[in-house]
Structure formats: structure tokens, C-alpha cells
Specification:
With 309 residues, the chain is mainly alpha-helical. 40% of the residues lie in helices and 8% in strands. α5 packs across α8 (231-244). The longest helix is centred in the middle third of the chain and has 25 residues, at 163-187. The two termini are 32 Å apart. The structure holds calcium ion (2 copies). One calcium ion binds next to β7. One calcium ion (CA) binds at residues 280, 282, 284, 286-288, 291. One of its GO terms (molecular function) is extracellular matrix binding. It is found in: Secreted, Extracellular space, Extracellular matrix, Basement membrane. Its main location: secreted.
């Protein structure tokens, strides 16, 4: 069970590989609320320990940012980007570019099983390109609205998450978040991984001699440490929320915003879906900061919106 942290970091390493042109997804239409874009893993990339996949990947999910380049080109499609699942075609009538659904058969063949993704229809798609092309073709239908990318990798049998396992999830996740932040702090040579405010907060954790060093720890020890050194966990939980809450940064996480954390985690950690489902305590499909903090054991009086920014 604990291997998920290592694998998640591994995925983070993959995700760090330079985003390709295709990853810049731009389209004129407003994005579908729960659209999910996942960058393909790049196998040859070295694992980078301690980098949070969310920190690195959120940009990839940023479909809302529209970069409309407006200089003349012979081919109107040359600088016209379409979001995942769509390709640009020229409208013959007025020679203007338009985004149309991509034919899944035009997607590049998957380089390997690592490119497969599992949809919420429990079907395995060769790649995220195949998935989004299929979803696009279903646009406007109930089926299309309900179809989302569930997790990275081929669909597989996921064991039911029992209560005892569910309670372990936040223990490991909190410890991991803290370690990720400390690692970012240590490696922030270029001064661009954390803001000044964030650095001040992480420095306090970093310099605390009582800090539990990263490594394999029993659940008992993790639970004990959370009790004894509770204050060190407050900021990491807030920080992760802020990393995810970007589109828009409104104090609520949508399914899409949660995706960069959720999609790589599910295949390794079968309690992921249940954990985040239950985190949405009022079942309104959004995870509010208060709900997020509560499901990681942060006390109500320690929830601080300013810490997220
Ligand atoms: Ca949000
Ligand atoms: Ca909620």
C-alpha cells in the first residue's frame, strides 16, 4: 500500500517532462465543466523524488487559459489550437478555423500500456487522445456528460475500500504532502517553486527538529506524529488545496481540479475515490476548503483561507 507514494512521485517525474505543443489546449468554446486532461507519461524520464504531481501538472489542466495568437497565417488553422478531443478544420465558406471532434482513429498509436486510460464507463482507451476524441463525439448527450477520465492506466479491478483502509489514507497523504513541501524547499535553487510567503512557512517545518524524516513509517507512528506535531501538518494540507484550486481559485475543488491528484493515484490506492467522495461531506460535488481540511484532520479553528493563497 505504501508504494503508492513512490509511484506517485514516479508519475510526477514523468509529468515533469517538458510539455509538448499538443498539450497547450486552446479553444474558443468554454470548457466543459468536468473535462479532464491528462498528460501522457514519458517512460524514459528519471524519477524525481519529492515533486508533487499536482504542482507540476496543474498547468496541463488549464484549459481555461485562452492563448489566441493573432497574426496572419496562410493556413487559418496554423495558430488555432483546439482542446483535447478536437482538431482544427477550415470552414470553407469564410476560410476561418473551427474545432471539430477528432476521429479516434487519427490519434497516434499508443506507445505502450502506460498510455492507456480508464474512463468512468469502465472502458480502457488506448490513450487520452482516444478517450477525449470518443468523449467529444458524445458531446451533448447524457452519456457524454457523464463520461470522464477516471484514472491513468488500463481499467482494472479495484478492491472495495473498507473503513479501516480509508482511515489510513489521510495519515500517509499528510506525511507525503509535508515531505513534498520540504523537498521543494530544499531544491528551490531557482526560487520559483514556492512563493516567499510559502517559503517562510515551510522553513519553520524544515527547521523543526521534531520533524519526522521522510521514509517508511508505520501507521502507528504516523498517527502519533500527527497528534504530537499537528502544527506541522496544517500548512501542507492548505498548500495542496491551493495547488489544486486554480480554475477558478474560488475555495472549491471541482472534479476537474482534483483530477491531477486523483487520476494517477487511483490505480495504486484503491481508497482514493471513496476518500474524495466522502470528503465532499455535503455532496454538492465540490470540495470546499473546510471539507478538505476536515477530511485531513485539520481542526476547524485552524482553517485559514490566507494560507491557501
Ligand atoms: Ca476552484
Ligand atoms: Ca461539498
Amino acid at each position: 500500500m505504501r508504494v503508492w507514494i513512490v509511484v506517485a512521485l514516479c508519475l510526477a517525474g514523468h509529468a515533469m517532462a517538458a510539455p509538448t505543443e499538443e498539450e497547450l489546449i486552446v479553444e474558443e468554446e468554454p470548457m466543459v465543466e468536468e473535462e479532464l486532461v491528462v498528460e501522457e507519461a514519458v517512460p524514459e524520464e528519471e524519477t524525481t523524488v519529492g515533486i508533487n504531481p499536482v504542482q507540476i501538472e496543474t498547468g496541463e489542466f488549464d484549459e481555461a487559459i485562452q492563448i489566441e495568437e493573432d497574426f496572419p497565417a496562410e493556413n487559418p488553422c496554423l495558430n488555432h489550437h483546439c482542446k483535447k478531443g478536437k482538431v482544427c478544420e477550415i470552414d470553407e465558406e469564410n476560410n476561418s478555423p473551427m474545432c471539430v471532434c477528432q476521429d479516434p482513429s487519427s490519434c497516434p498509436a499508443a506507445a505502450g500500456e502506460f498510455e492507456h486510460v480508464c474512463g468512468t464507463d469502465n472502458k480502457t482507451y488506448d490513450s487520452s487522445c482516444h478517450f477525449f476524441a470518443t468523449k467529444c463525439a458524445l458531446e451533448g448527450t447524457k452519456k457524454g456528460h457523464k463520461l470522464h477520465l477516471d484514472y491513468l492506466g488500463a481499467c482494472k479491478f479495484l478492491e472495495t475500500c473498507v473503513d479501516a483502509e480509508l482511515s489510513e489514507f489521510p495519515l500517509r497523504m499528510r506525511d507525503w504532502l509535508k515531505n513534498v513541501l520540504v523537498t521543494l524547499f530544499e531544491r528551490d535553487e531557482d526560487n520559483n517553486l514556492l512563493t516567499e510567503k510559502q517559503k517562510v512557512r515551510v522553513q519553520k517545518i524544515y527547521e523543526n527538529v521534531k520533524r519526522l524524516q521522510s521514509g517508511e513509517h508505520s501507521l502507528d507512528l504516523l498517527a502519533h506524529d500527527f497528534e504530537k506535531n499537528y502544527n506541522m501538518y496544517i500548512f501542507p494540507v492548505h498548500w495542496q488545496f491551493g495547488e489544486l484550486d486554480q480554475h477558478p481559485a474560488d475555495g472549491f475543488l471541482t472534479h476537474t481540479e482534483l483530477a491531477p491528484l486523483r487520476a494517477p493515484l487511483i490505480p495504486m490506492e484503491h481508497c482514493t475515490t471513496r476518500f474524495f467522495d466522502e470528503c465532499d461531506a455535503d455532496s454538492d460535488k465540490y470540495i470546499a476548503l473546510e471539507e478538505w481540511a476536515a477530511c485531513f484532520g485539520i481542526k476547524e479553528e485552524d482553517i485559514d483561507k490566507d494560507m491557501v493563497l
